[in-house]
Amino acid sequence: MSKYLLDKFLFTVDRDPELVEAYRTDPAGTVERWEREYANKLLNCHGAEDSTWQALSAEERTALAAHDHVRLFEMGAHPFLTLTLFIALFERDHGPLEYQLAYARAMEHITLPYPDIST
Amino acid sequence: MAELVAVIASTHHPFYYRASTSTGADRPPFADEWVSKIETFRETLTRAQPDVLVMVGSDHFHQLWLDNMPQFLVGKAPVYDANWYNEEREFGLPRMRLQGQEDLSSYILREGLDAGFDLAFSNELRIDHSITCPIITLRPEADLPIVPIYTNIFAPPLPQPKRFVQLGRTIRELVESWPSDQRVAVIGTGHLSLELGGPRQFGPHGPDPEFDRRAVEWIASGDLEGCLAEVTLDSLHSPGNATHGFMDFMLMMGVAGEGKKADHVDSLDLFHTMEAYFTWYPQGLDSTGMAAP
Q1: Fewer CB within 10 A of the end CB, N or C, for chain B?
Q2: Is residue B291 part of a domain?
Q3: ipTM of the predicted structure?
């Protein structure tokens, strides 16, 4: 399992309006495409310099494809990245703060210490 | 030598811009009180008549990323573009452009390295809301050149709290030894208790009002010793999972100095996280109420 690669997914999708919309409407397809096109991309470098070893685990793929922010938190994905991206995905379907509060309620069972987010 | 004319520590609330500019039904009930407190806070910087702003903040995974993560970084550019697509999207923040003060950037880098801080640097830095929020609140004209300094409060492993304090002390020494006749204000922003992406986020108050009360007391009284005795990298998880941003307040306590009481202290209890504002005048105020000398 690689918290770094989970974070890289959240980071690269969040900063790209086209990927944000793709992930909202077709999460499983976007995860598959992202792993093929972006997972090994060394950011800011020519394609010939891509990494050779990055891969999501089956569990990570499933959590991302299910938009499962609770599971992502439990796996140690960076909570700021998850929150920012998920607000971009879903806040528009809700009233003011409704989505943020529902997001918190879904995590009520989680107690301190939280999962380690070190990469 | 340059004069350090004001030291300012603040929370950086990305919702302030939208709350303060909204009208009618969109304007939140707390907006007027918030604006009034900010205008009073702004006056504390205006009174210092600064020529240059050293701005301490923390990049929120915008330009600095886990493939190449500095602990402390000084911007050294003639111009800084500011705010990012996701900050426009989520907070409605405007795109901004600030001038840099490259001489002071160079001086802080060279002398900081020689003083024992292995500072990273950037010649092309797009700054984010940790620095633009205090520009919006304290100097909305955005007309003064800046030196941005980024700290890592976000991507563990993080430096220890005492290292933030030491960097603050060093920044003060460097500003005061900069061979220039400029008037410098050092402005830094952080957080009190804060939870992001966890079960305690977006509550009616900050996630830990008791921590917030003690934190305001530490900062207002300059109680670095008490603060350092209690705050550790581990302890900061408990008030809220994003509370490590408090270490930027500790850095600013280092700039202000041990035992130095703040000249202006204010706070505002908002949903999600408490706002807090502090100003010190290292040279005091003159008889007209302007910062000496």
Answers
A1: C
A2: no
A3: 0.95
